[in-house]
Amino acid sequence: MKAAYLVKYGPAETAFEIREVEKPKPGPSQVLIKVEAFGLNFADIAARYGKYRGAPPLPSLLGYDVVGQVEKCGANVKNLTIGDRVTALTLFGGYAEFAIAENGVANKIPESISAGVAVALATQYCTAYFLSDRITNIQENEKVLIHAAAGGVGTALVQMALHKKCIVYGTCSSPEKMEYLQINGVHHPINHRKKDFAETIRSLVGDKGLDVVFNPIGGKSLKQGYRLLGAGGRLVSYGVSSLNSQKTIFGKLKDLWQFGIYHPVQFLSNSKGVIGVNMLKIAEEKPKKIARVMQEVIQLQQEGILRPHVGGEYSINQLAEAHTFLESRKSMGKIVVRW
Ligand SMILES: NC(=O)c1ccc[n+]([C@@H]2O[C@H](COP(=O)([O-])OP(=O)(O)OC[C@H]3O[C@@H](n4cnc5c(N)ncnc54)[C@H](OP(=O)(O)O)[C@@H]3O)[C@@H](O)[C@H]2O)c1
């Protein structure tokens, strides 16, 4: 089979090489999937620069989500059969013509779901659902701030918050994304390059503050988000995009310092808190939780409540272009690459 290996850290143009390798073999609880398409995730950009600690060493196969047909089932797999079309989570290994997934996180989907939508459901929507339903349990009328609201996870969080009838504040970095947020129903879109998001929100919400902040960026924005929370507030830290940029060691130390310093007594007296979420960790330790979330997300998509937006579809020969687009911060929704 062919697989797109990450062979060199750095710019996308020189990072990947298509190699001919043996098909992987599924274990007893796994399925082998003939991959129709795989999705890109922002963590892939960090991995390409050698900055993603959990990624395998070079030469490595990235890829968290695939859509395709079940080619082989392990002996203990009862819920899927050969030929089923599935969307699946792969803990790396997705950038290949064949990929392995645990059967719990490979879910049957109808032919009518496009490849881009299918992979968005597996990663961005499962993440957003886990954050908004399981971790923060957002409620009607709660004031919710979503950073990078035009991105893959951001788009999903916006749809979930609107479905729960929350009041949504969303940040982004361009006029095109502002328009996208408006179309998606964000009540208060904020271009953080034009306006200080914290001051803007403070002037809108006053002293009672926000109820929930979803932060995939880290750095100063995390501390600012924490300060914006009112009593009962929950801040979820689920990414550190700000640390991705090429900075000196002093720049990085400054970034880390800017996250702020927190103490449980402070959480107690102010009645608000911070929680970190790493979906890979949960998938490794508690895969059944992810499997359940995935089923619920697919159900909500089938009911028309969740509508993933595919912001770019590329062929495997354009993998570098797809990576560069996601890195450019111009993408909206999910980016997908087809074999
Ligand atoms: N914890 C988990 O388990 C988990 C799972 C999935 C995803 N994530 C995280 O969720 C985030 C979104 O992932 P995605 O794949 O859906 O990507 P995405 O949101 O489609 O793209 C990332 C967006 O983040 C913003 N951004 C990028 N670099 C930045 C920087 N240096 N400073 C501030 N903002 C920056 C940009 O939005 P603007 O330019 O509009 O600000 C960019 O479009 C990523 O941080 C990813 O690592 C975490």
Describe this structure in words.
It is a single chain. With 339 residues, the chain is of the alpha/beta class. The protein is built from 11 helices and 15 strands. It has helices spanning 42-48, 115-135, 152-163, 175-183, 197-205, 220-228, 249-258, 264-270, 279-285, 287-302, 319-327; strands at residues 2-6, 16-20, 30-39, 65-73, 85-89, 98-102, 106-108, 143-146, 167-172, 188-191, 210-215, 229-237, 272-276, 310-315, 334-338. Strands 3, 4, 5, 6, 7, 14 and 15 form a 7-stranded mixed sheet that branches. Helix 4 links the parallel strand 9 (167-172) and strand 10. The radius of gyration is 20 Å and the shape is globular. It starts with a strand and ends with a strand. Bound molecules: NADP nicotinamide-adenine-dinucleotide phosphate (NAP). NADP nicotinamide-adenine-dinucleotide phosphate is lined by residues 41-43, 123-124, 127, 148, 150-154, 172-173, 177, 216-217, 238-239, 241-242, 244-245, 277-279, 329, 331.
